[in-house]
Amino acid sequence: MRGRSLSVISRSIDNYVTGVSERSQQRGGLKDEGYITHDIFDDNMNSTTTSSQIQAWLESLRPKTLPLAIAAIMTGSALASWSGHFSWSVALLAFLTASLLQILSNLANDYGDVTKGSDTEQRIGPKRGMQKGLITAQQMKTALKITVLLSCLSGIALITAACQSTSDIIGFLGLGLLAIIAAITYTVGAKPYGYMGLGDLSVLIFFGWLSVLGTYYLQAHTFSLSTVLPATACGLLSVAVLNINNLRDIETDSQNGKNTLAVRLGGTKARYYHAALLAGAMFCFIAFTLLYLNNWYSWLFLLASPMLLKHVLQVLRDPTAEGMRPQLVQMVKVALLTNILFSIGLILN
């Protein structure tokens, strides 16, 4: 009985499938009958691949690093406002240009580290598009060219809106070209300076002095020695972000010949160096406030001190590279908060 029942069921299934096949041919295939086909699976696969590629590009663009570029322009614009020379158009174009240069640096860093073999499977930090194999070297080169073009267009618009003399135009065109070269050659080229321990100095120059002082000058059309202190503070906070990043990757960087300053100093000294960077930044902000400001809200930036102190203690106490991963996020937040509070104090003055 059991064998006969199975035979009947088998014939019923065959008849059903045959009937479906015939009707499908008459009406245009199984899609018209509402049955799942290989095409649907293909569509889902294509959709998943597209989603993965978009995610890969976002990871390579690293939008979470943009606050560093924005903080410097914000501080420079706040200084311009404090001196009575703020310009919305110049400030917004400076924001855009700095963000594009930051993205250019991120893409170049992704390309350079992968092609040089620094981004290995052992790396603690997040794996990015090229490392995952979702972005080819040729695609990244194209993205770099597009970003360079956009940076140039934005920079030219900024110079056109802000500069009032031929010497200023020539000077800022030269600085813009220098910024593009620095963003690319950090990890790209025969001798990338990021592999020689010069990344910290570059960040201090471009995320501190040039970004803050340049933004101030483009709006005030003059240079003030007083602005060097907050520009240095802003730059030191950005260097601290880079240092935490390098502490996180210190083991794999050392193994792959990427001799960052953290690698050269060693883990322990690099942690004391980190504390010195943050102490130096706060000293510059305090010195500027004592010398040039005279209201209680000029000290708003001190509200970030508890977060800063907590961060420093955690960095000093945790000797592991893995422990630096959450500290990188914290450092970005602390740097941004400190600059925001300092800028608010300036504007209120």
TrEMBL record:
Question: Does the record's keyword annotation contain Transmembrane helix?
Answer: yes
Keywords, A to Z? Cell inner membrane, Cell membrane, Membrane, Menaquinone biosynthesis, Transferase, Transmembrane, Transmembrane helix
Membrane-spanning parts:
65-82, 88-108, 142-163, 169-189, 201-218, 224-244, 272-293, 328-348
What pathway is this protein said to act in by its record? Quinol/quinone metabolism; menaquinone biosynthesis; menaquinol from 1,4-dihydroxy-2-naphthoate: step 1/2
Gene Ontology BP annotations: menaquinone biosynthetic process; vitamin K biosynthetic process
The GO terms this record gives for MF are: 1,4-dihydroxy-2-naphthoate polyprenyltransferase activity
The record's GO CC annotations read: plasma membrane
Q: Which domain of life is it from?
A: Bacteria
The UniProt entry lists the main location of this chain as membrane
Q: Name the catalysed reactions.
A: an all-trans-polyprenyl diphosphate + 1,4-dihydroxy-2-naphthoate + H(+) = a 2-demethylmenaquinol + CO2 + diphosphate
Q: InterPro entries recorded for this chain?
A: MenA, UbiA_prenyltransferase, UbiA_sf, UBIAD1
Q: What class of enzyme is it?
A: transferase
What EC number(s) does the entry state?
Answer: 2.5.1.74
What subcellular locations does the record give?
Answer: Cell membrane; Membrane
Per its UniProt record, what Pfam families does this chain match? Answer: UbiA
User: Per UniProt, what is the membrane topology?
Assistant: Multi-pass membrane protein
> Do the record's keywords include Ligase?
no
**The protein's role, per its UniProt record:** Conversion of 1,4-dihydroxy-2-naphthoate (DHNA) to demethylmenaquinone (DMK).
Q: Cross-referenced HAMAP family, in alphabetical order?
A: MenA_1
The text of the family note is: Belongs to the MenA family. Type 1 subfamily.
What is the protein named?
Answer: 1,4-dihydroxy-2-naphthoate octaprenyltransferase
